Amino acid sequence: MPDPLAPGELLALDRQHVWHPYGPMPGRQEPLIVASASGVRLRLAEPAHGADELIDGMSSWWSAVHGYNHPVLNAAVQEQLGRMSHVMFGGLTHEPAVRLAARLVEITPEGLEHVFLADSGSVSVEVAVKMCLQYWRSAGRPEKHRLMTWRGGYHGDTWQPMAVCDPDGGMHELWSGALPRQVFADAPPHDYDTDAVPAYSAHLREVVARHAHELAAVIVEPVVQGAGGMRFHDPVYLRVLREACDEHGVLLVLDEIATGFGRTGRLFAAEHAGITPDVMCLGKALTGGYLTMAATLCTARVADGISRGEVPVLAHGPTFMGNPLAAAVACTSIDLLLSQDWQMEVKRIESALRDGLADAASLPSVRDVRVLGAIGVVELDHEVDVAAATRAAVREGVWLRPFRNLIYTMPPYVTGDSDVARICTAVCAAARVG
After folding, report:
1. Which InterPro entries match (predicted)?
2. Binding site residues for substrate, as ranges?
């Protein structure tokens, strides 16, 4: 092992060579150097604004639900590493991937029977879109090639996912002239506005009916729209979409990359509506934040339809598909989650977030405060000053990653009450200066 770099040298090389997500090159903001992580804490290589460690309020972009350096997950990786770290999945198979696929079929909504293992959330959405397009082409209906979604959504940064992100004001607006033109319904009404249900339900039904002849699928994030705005909506709209898709011959895709594995208080957000989609995308918390992996699940109807086509295969095969290390830790992460009273932990965090963020509602620049499961959101009436808000949170010993006009938290489920309280203090501090 080479000698570790001094912090100054590391930052100089980072600035010269490393392109960070959603940032310019070279970067304008100096990143914090994480030396190690354990539990819910990130230990910094050198202190920042008086803090030498930070409580992670983000679960590493919503993935590290068990926290860091977990002995059970560490052991799963080490045990699998002793057998094999990787083997190609074309023409070969192995126990970790088979076990994972069977486990996902067991715990997801009934009817999802087939699992395609992918590299990342965005790729799982690409695969879902390809499944839906190929299903209709195999059925002799190639004209059904467009997708419908609602505004305010986010599905990833690769090509087809960008096409179903909100085209106006979203982070992919730059590509609006080049991306496939999809069908957008209005954004779902905020939160659980029962007065809005009849009118918006009728709107969804009308849009599906009007475009059914050209729609391959409807794709939405269930209950929580994530990086498009952290907005919550009534699960009734998922039932409306299920009924409309069934009535008009359109497939339904649920993107559960952010909501899967308990984040909303149900294991999968589809359970709030009691429905099964034709295709479901999973990622993020799938491996407990240890390794990149995602999955696209589908019903037998979708798989059989593709298999009866002129090209009877799904022509997609990532090099690291079904990676044994990732599959092994994913199986262990799922078992770890389900072996505990995770619902009680999420409810505990939800209650603490409601209490701790209540004061933010009285701040002059705050438009809304909302909490669902282990998700807490403070929405401002202006674009966040990310640098100022981040500094304020770090001074409180907490890591947050604000974006657009939002300061939010999605902490690991193992975050204790005192640490949740500190996260809330940091969110409020960031809202005051952001």
Report:
1. Aminotrans_3, Aminotrans_3_PPA_site, BioA, PyrdxlP-dep_Trfase, PyrdxlP-dep_Trfase_major, PyrdxlP-dep_Trfase_small
2. 61, 154, 284, 317, 401
